[in-house]
Amino acid sequence: MPEGPDQATADFFVRSLRRLEEAGVDFLVGGAYALNCHAGVERHTRDFDVFVRPGDADATLAALAPLCDRTDLTFPHWLGNACCGDAYVDVIFNSGNGVCEVDDEWFEHAIDSTVFGQEVRLVPVEEMIWQKAFIMERERFDGADIAHMLRASGKRLDWARLLRRFRPHLRVLLAHLVLFGFIYPDEREVVPARVMDLLSERLRREGGAAPSGQLLCRGTLLSREQSLFDLERWGYQDAAASSLARTCASSGSP
Prior knowledge:
This protein is an alpha/beta fold. It has 11 helices and 9 strands. A hairpin with a 2-residue loop joins β6 and β7. The relative contact order is 0.12. The model has no long low-confidence stretch (mean pLDDT about 90).
């Protein structure tokens, strides 16, 4: 079994959870601890992920500040950090591409659990799959996490909500479902045939659509750094720009 965090790190995480409760912050636990619940995959890191609504990000960081060496809104459109030594709490309220904003539904479908002996609510598996599906950086690809969650939790998924979350990026979901069937050929029935039929039919219809004429690159929604060449050298338009612009406008960020 993987070793847990050292005592100092675990104590910081526990103090952080208690402080957020005392401050009345509405938050969900995600990251490795939610993955353990949804997929049965245990791993430990020096970061602890809490998810909050965008409007609660500043209050969350302010609540954690007395426990920390430093807090900052690292990326104003999606992420803040609260650091104590080498350990830190990530305060997440969107995804880096601006697509997966934390909204009320995350909380409505949250899972009750216990982390470090503290009663908490976990990010729902559907929203966790949604957010992780777009992480395809050169140094990090979360597809294995999605396959593990589908294997363990697929038969309990709210597929209608998951499909709605991925609209208008259903091809991304289909890609992960196809990979799941490749990874676990004996577990393919976990994904309902009606879901695969719907996505395959959508793919067939899109395949016959006329080009938009915009020379659009959606690679920036998956890995911005690896798609910069497309934007700078080949003149493609950045598909992530519009989602980030909407996110920044709603949050008041520059």
